[in-house]
Amino acid sequence: MAASRTRIVVALDLLEYSEIVLEHALDQAVRHDGPDLHFLAVVKRGAHEVEDVKKRLAALVLPALEGMPTTDWHAQLHVREGNVPEEIANLAAEVRAHLLVIGRFGLHHPRRGIGATAGRVVELAGCPTLVVGLADQSADAQAQCPACVEIRAQSEGERLFCAAHVSDRMRLSTIITPGSTTAGGGLMW
Question: Which of 103, 96, 78 is CA-nearest to residue 15?
Answer without folding.
Answer: 103
